[in-house]
């Protein structure tokens, strides 16, 4: 019997380096499937449907909700964002691990429906360092940065509800830690019951 894959939920405030960590971990793990979110917002320059997001109309998104075809969803700036259910469940059933890169409110929705999922929160070393990183981008005003910092504090307050915390003070260390979390979770007794039974059956 083949064990189902592990569902990993990854969250972090803006500017914590979540995207960089995740892209490297995906490159290093052939068995890791990245779930692409659906959204009602318009594509930005360079974004491709099915690669960066599944771009759908509001009516289409509401139909997905009505048919229970999203695992979680939220709204931001009058647009809907959510995780399509079908692709995630198909990959898990095939034994592939699936990682969701979502905000804390969506993560808590997943926690209610998938209590066996693994929840990982990426922390900045400090709020001061997070402010420095956001400012280094050079793409946002001071007002926008302050707004992001306030939002970050609210998000970090939810980190207590996660299973693992990774502090991104050194990028390579953070990448290795996430790989260790995924690898370790695959060896837990609850996920290895089929293997234990197999060994005993052949004793």
Write the layout of secondary structure elements.
Blueprint: E1 7-11, H1 18-28, E2 32-34, E3 38-39, E4 54-55, H2 58-66, E5 70-76, E6 79-84, H3 85-93, E7 97-101, H4 104-113, E8 118-123, H5 127-137, H6 142-156, E9 164-167, H7 171-185, H8 193-201
Parallel strand pairs: 1-7, 1-8, 2-7, 3-4, 8-9
Antiparallel strand pairs: 3-6, 5-6
Helix pairs in contact: 1-7, 5-6
Question: Would you mind describing this structure in some detail?
Answer:
A hairpin with a 2-residue loop joins strand 5 and strand 6 (79-84). The protein is of the alpha/beta class. Helix content is 44%, strand content 20%. The protein has 8 helices and 9 strands. The chain starts with 6 loop residues before the first strand and ends with a helix. The chain has a domain at 7-35 and 96-201: Rossmann fold (3-Layer(aba) Sandwich), CATH 3.40.50.300. Helix 1 (18-28) crosses helix 7 and helix 5 packs antiparallel against helix 6. The mean pLDDT is 92. It has helices at 18-28, 58-66, 85-93, 104-113, 127-137, 142-156, 171-185, 193-201; strands at residues 7-11, 32-34, 38-39, 54-55, 70-76, 79-84, 97-101, 118-123, 164-167.
On the 0 to 100 scale, the average pLDDT is 92
The Cα radius of gyration reads 18 Å
The strand line-up of the biggest sheet is 2-7-1-8-9
Number-wise, the strands total 9
Low-confidence stretches: none
Strand content: 15-25%
What's the CATH class of the domain at 7-35 and 96-201, please? Alpha Beta
CATH topology of the domain at 7-35 and 96-201: Rossmann fold
Q: Structural class of the secondary elements?
A: alpha/beta
Overall body shape: globular
Helix content class? 40-55%
CATH homologous group name of the domain at 7-35 and 96-201: P-loop containing nucleotide triphosphate hydrolases
Compressed to H and E, one letter per element, the order equals: EHEEEHEEHEHEHHEHH
- SS field, number of helical segments: 8
């Amino acid at each position: 019997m083949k064990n189902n894959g592990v569902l990993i939920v990854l969250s972090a405030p803006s500017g914590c380096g979540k995207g960089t960590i995740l892209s490297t971990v995906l490159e290093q793990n052939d068995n890791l499937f990245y779930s692409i979110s659906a959204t009602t917002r318009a594509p930005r320059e360079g974004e491709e449907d099915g690669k960066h997001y599944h771009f759908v109309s509001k009516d289409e998104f509401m139909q997905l909700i009505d048919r229970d075809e999203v695992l979680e969803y939220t709204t931001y700036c009058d647009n809907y964002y959510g995780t399509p259910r079908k692709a995630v469940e198909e990959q898990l059933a095939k034994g592939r691990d699936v990682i969701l890169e979502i905000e804390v409110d969506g993560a808590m929705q997943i926690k209610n429906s998938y209590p066996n999922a693994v929840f990982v929160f990426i922390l900045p070393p400090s709020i001061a360092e997070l402010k420095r990183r956001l400012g280094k981008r050079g793409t946002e005003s001071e007002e926008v940065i302050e707004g992001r910092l306030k939002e970050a504090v609210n998000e970090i307050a939810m980190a207590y509800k996660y299973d693992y915390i990774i502090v991104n003070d050194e990028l390579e260390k953070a990448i290795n830690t996430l790989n260790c979390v995924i690898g370790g979770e695959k060896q837990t007794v609850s996920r290895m019951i089929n293997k234990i039974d197999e060994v005993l059956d052949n004793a």
